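Deliverable D5.2: sample structural annotation.
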Amino acid sequence: MAALRTPASLVSGCVTVLLVGLTLAGCGGGGGKDDAGSRPQDTRAAVKKAEASPDAPAKGDDFGCLTPAQAAAGSIVFKSATGAPVGGFLTGSGNTGIVLAHQSDGNVCQWKDKAVELGRTGFRVLAVNSTTVDEAAEIEGAAATLRAEGAWKLLLMGASKGGTATLRAAARMTLKPDAVVALSAPEKYGSMDALDAVTGLGVPVLYMAGDQDGGFTSAARELSAASAKAPENRLVQVKGSAAHGVALLAAPANWDTVVAFLRKYCT
């Protein structure tokens, strides 16, 4: 995979970080779309997978993409808000934490490269490996884990189904996040209703979707329109793009936009 440039906005992140001769890889595992027709089937499949895999996540799991060093240092197991064990990849340091939630067609690997990039520039990042039927509770647990690790500012970012879960989690968290990014998020996924959740969401939010991404294009508009209480409500519809979720961030301009938004609300 060709290396992507590190944007200037990211280099000048929340803490001063010296990056000399650093080349970072782009986002991994862009994958396919969470199309509306597959949602109920995908949800049932997730339930069956959870029931068929009674073993708890293992600390040090490489998830099929982490190097041995990354797995040893950053592969963790934390508890969701409902007490279920959840695996994740923790990297970086600093007073601002970022929770990353992946799409239905991926796992923690979908966010690994971006997690590493953000971690190297002053953020404390936890990419969630979703395996339970309550993704919002997983995100809430990840947020609590980052706060326990020393993050007193918190940002949430999710792609597609992960974006829906992120918006739902942000709405029901007692201690609200400082900002939220939702990439190609559907209004509803399974039992999660993001459209209802965002009506009371009073935190800055960035919605991004390609303008040729079918129902996800209109979903971004509807979610943004419903987010009337957000102090910053930014809608970015990428012209001429059918890229979905994490794949949107392969375009440097889109990544720059997201990073600038995240940096705006960090410590």
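Annotation notes: DSSP finds nine helices and twelve strands in the chain. The chain has a mean pLDDT of 84.
The annotation will be released with the project's public dataset once the embargo ends.
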